[in-house]
Amino acid sequence: MAVINVHDLHYTYPDNNQALKGITFTVNTGEKVALVGANGSGKSTLLLHLAGAIKPQNGTITTAKTGLIFQDADDQILMPSVIEDVAFSLVANGMKVAQAHERALNMLEALGISHLAKRVPHQLSGGEKRMVSLAGVLITSPDILLLDEPTANLDPKSRRRVINFLRENDKTIMLATHDLDMALDICTRALILNHGTISAEGVLPEIFTKREILEANNLELPLRFTKQMAETQRFELWEDCSSYALQAHAFDRSATFPPRK
């Protein structure tokens, strides 16, 4: 069942930058889809449309309930303590503060970060802020998670924590990223944007192995595939050298030389 349905979506900014040019795609329940492309390809603009922050100028969008996690968690965390920030949307919609804080604490516990409840957000690490922003969105019970560069500026341990959480989560996910290795860890499908159009799409990991498609869209092979290719080339070189050595050895043994005088 489709929970995102976008048809012929167009959007031009006031400076006449045409950010989206006829975008059409669907996403089904439970799918995890990567939205990749070079800077300025339209990824963030598309996410803002899906979140309802920008209205389409032309075309149509239908979605289930969405929750958007910004690229910079500092743009999303507003309150003086973590628990207040996570509870903010509930209180803003009329829930009593005590009940909202109880719900918020339960969400923090579910994410393994309840120890941060009374911390001041701006004193947290990048990874901790990312998890707090996730908690603030998840508490609203969205059907779809929209994420803009969810692992940007994170240290390796924090990056892996976010990846593991998203991979194990059963919600429909659409994430915009330049990190193709992260996308491979989480997603099963990718849309490649180029100057406001979907220039290619396909299942993962296959589409990320197609060097010609990636290079045409100003992308590079994921690091893991680059390493695999290097290992393959190294093995082939070793085989060539071994074959040459064996041939040389066979020639040496079969050669005959005149007797010494």
Core attributes:
261 residues; alpha/beta; 6-stranded mixed beta sheet; 3-stranded antiparallel beta sheet
Here the CATH topology of the largest domain equals Rossmann fold
Q: Return the domain count.
A: 2
Instruction: Tally the beta strands.
Output: 9
Tell me the name of the CATH class of the largest domain: Alpha Beta
> Given the structure, what is the number of helices?
8
- Which word captures the global form? globular
The residue fraction in helices comes out at: 25-40%
The run of helices and strands is: EEEHEEHHHEHEHEEHH
Q: What structural class do the secondary elements suggest?
A: alpha/beta
Query: From the alpha-carbon coordinates, what is the Rg to the nearest angstrom?
Result: 25 Å
- The low-pLDDT segments are none
Cross-sheet strand order for the largest sheet: 5-6-7-3-8-9
Provide the residue-averaged pLDDT.
89
Query: What percent of residues are in strands?
Result: 15-25%
Termini separation comes to 91 Å
Summarize the structure in short.
The protein contains 8 helices and 9 strands.
Describe the structure.
This protein folds into two domains: 2-210, Rossmann fold; 222-255. The strands form two sheets. It has a six-stranded mixed β-sheet with strand order 5-6-7-3-8-9, sandwiched between helices. Strands 2-1-4 form a three-stranded antiparallel β-sheet, with helices on one face. β6 (144-148), α5 and β7 (172-177) form a beta-alpha-beta unit. The chain has 261 residues and is an alpha/beta fold. The protein is globular and about 70 Å long. It is 40% helix and 23% strand.
